[in-house]
From TrEMBL:
InterPro entries: Kinase-like_dom_sf, Prot_kinase_dom, Protein_kinase_ATP_BS, Ser-Thr/Tyr_kinase_cat_dom, Ser/Thr_kinase_AS, Ser_Thr_protein_kinase. ATP binds at K38. Residues 11-234 form the Protein kinase domain. This is Protein kinase domain-containing protein. The keyword Kinase applies. GO terms for cellular component: cytoplasm. Keywords: ATP-binding, Kinase, Nucleotide-binding, Serine/threonine-protein kinase, Transferase. GO terms for molecular function: ATP binding; protein serine/threonine kinase activity. Belongs to the protein kinase superfamily. One of its GO terms (biological process) is signal transduction.
């Protein structure tokens, strides 16, 4: 059981940052500190305690919280705790807030230019993070610019940290097949054709190659292609 429990009355939601099928992320405050609050949506609890969807959602929630609580690295977002007594009995995680949001968001901003030096720093941060996770026998499965969080407070030294892993089943546009997960344009080929049920950390290496292309080009991979064409290789 996790020891890092936070009372709902101690957190304050300031602004919604984004939402998906099963969760919503807020910028908030906890003990005077800026934090990210990720709540499971109330709809997951609407069908009652016997709902299969609720059970699966809660299992995935606690799985991610357990992983986050054990990770301590400069390039992994800090985990502060879990809220169990949210509105309607909902659950939430409270983690470090990265002021500039996702790397994808930074790349799209017209007023925030990233030269090659800064892009290299960000890429190295992501590399250190990936090396650390793999040393802990953790495979991310969903590495992409949307899941790399950036702090640009120091314009000469951007900081990049990984966030949002372990809950890939709960995210929109995420494929799950036979226990394998990921977002299609970033998925290694062995995940697409189902030829290998034993997945190694090499799937993250493939995804990281796509992330490097994203970072250098500023574009989204396969942006003008239908998912069927990506899978078929047309």
């Amino acid at each position: 059981m996790l020891e890092q429990m936070i009372r709902n009355e101690d957190v304050e939601e300031l602004k919604e940052l984004g939402s998906g099928t099963f969760g919503t992320v807020y910028h908030g405050k906890w003990r005077g500190t800026d934090v990210a609050i990720k709540r499971i949506n109330k709809s997951c609890f609407a069908a009652g305690p016997s709902s299969q969807q609720e059970r699966l959602t809660i299992i995935e929630f606690w799985r991610e919280a357990e992983i986050l609580s054990k990770l301590h690295h400069p390039n992994v977002v800090a985990f502060y705790g879990v809220v169990e007594d949210g509105p309607g009995g909902t659950l939430a995680t409270v983690t470090e807030f990265m002021v500039d949001g996702s790397l994808r968001r930074v790349l799209l901003r017209k007023d925030r230019h990233l030269d090659h030096r800064k892009k290299l720093i960000i890429a190295m941060d992501a590399t250190f993070r990936m090396e650390y996770l793999h040393s802990k026998k953790i495979v991310h499965f969903d590495l992409k610019c949307d899941n790399l969080l950036v702090n640009m407070k120091d314009p000469s030294r951007p900081i990049c940290k990984v966030g949002d892993f372990g809950l890939s089943k709960m995210k929109r546009n995420t494929l799950v097949s036979g226990g394998v997960r990921g977002t299609l344009p970033w998925m290694a080929h062995e995940l697409l054709n189902g030829s290998n049920n034993k997945v190694s950390d090499k799937v993250d290496v493939f995804s990281f190659g796509i992330v490097l292309w994203e970072t250098l080009s500023g574009e989204e991979p396969y942006a003008n292609m239908h998912y069927g064409a990506i899978i078929g290789g047309d």
